Amino acid sequence: MSRRPPSFVFVGNHRALDFVNTEVAAEGVPRDLLAGFPDLVSWLERAGAIDRATARTARGRWGGRRGGDVALADARALRAGLRRLADAAAHGQPIPRDVLGRVNALLGRGASVVRVLPDAASGFVTRRGLRLEQPGDLLVPLAEAAADLLCQSDLGRVRRCAHPACVLYFLDGTKNGTRRWCDMRTCGNRANAAAYYRRHHPGPALA
Fold it and tell me: Does residue 54 form part of some domain?
């Protein structure tokens, strides 16, 4: 019987933060959505970091093998670094230098390739791909996403969800910078319900 794939969340408004958000909290207990190498490949494909053919190649070469295990461990280490990056940005603190070093090391692998392809609407377009030779090459699109976050985004707009039990991060894209929740349908509604309960029922309240 095959294992049910995890339910990934894409609320970060940026690929680097969505990757950080592959570690969530359920009832206050941390949960890693990247439980195995297949989950990592599935997330990369769903996030648009790799295409279907690259995902199929990665599964065939390294699924159930040591290379896949190493790539998963390296991905988790990168995620921990990007979480520190996000937390520093959310608090207006300097970005950790060792995180930059990890990102630059991945960018230096030279696995990213750009091709020019015909396009019916505009004539030609560029498409970024991946020269997949080693398991670690799978992490290059994540390093590119981190570089984009650092260089092209307003780091002052990186936020952690305002719900105290939530560990998700997002890039606030609202005009006035007023976004507070990872998702209004979940954490926002939970917080509003808790506030309503406190107003109408003095004493301890449920979050």
Answer: yes
